Known about the structure:
28% of the residues lie in helices and 19% in strands. The chain is built from six helices and eleven strands. The protein starts with a helix and ends with a helix.
Amino acid sequence: MHDNQSQRLQLRKLIRQRRQQLSPAQQQQAANDLVSQALALPALNNSQHIALYLANDSELDTFPLIQTLWQQGKQLYLPVLHPFAAGYLLFVRYDQDTLLYPNRFGIPEPLAECHRLLPVDQLDIIFTPLVAFDLKGNRLGMGGGFYDRTLSQLPTKSRSKVIGLAYNCQQVDAVPCEAWDIPLNKVITPGEYFDFRSMITP
C-alpha cells in the first residue's frame, strides 16, 4: 500500500478511537460548547443559508447547533448522496418536520426533491465533518472523498465559507495530504476557533 494511504488509514483509526473514548457527558458538553463557539462567528450573523450534517460514527453532535440556528430563523441544509453523479453531494433544505431516510451508509438524509435543493455555491456557510485536521487547515475525511469532490466545484472566489467542525482531540501535528484534498480556511472545536489564513506568515 502507498505510504501516504497507509498513514491516512492509521490516522483515521487513531482519531476515531479518540472520539469513541469520550464519555457521554464529555460529548454533551462539547456539543453545547460548539454552539457558543459557532454563535461567536462574525460570519454567522450575515448568513442565511447554512449547510450542516448529522453526527455519525462518534462525530461531534451538531444537533444543539441545528436547533439554535432554527430558532434564529436560518435556513439549514443537509448533505445527500447525489443520485446520478456518484461520489458527489447535494444539499437539501432541512426543516424541523423534514422526514429523513437512511442512505446506503446508514446515515439519515432527506429526499433529494428538486424544489428543496440549493446549489453548493449559494450556501453562505458549509460546516463539514472531518476525522483529523492540522494547523495548516489540512482536513482528513472518512475516505470517500464526497466533500472534496463537491467543494472542488466552488468557484475560486466563492462567497461560501467552508468551516470544519471537530473535537479538540482531532487536531494532529500533520495530516498526510493527497492532491485532491481541499484545505479548510477555518475549523471550530468546542474549545477553540482556528482561522488558518491568519496563521499563514507571508
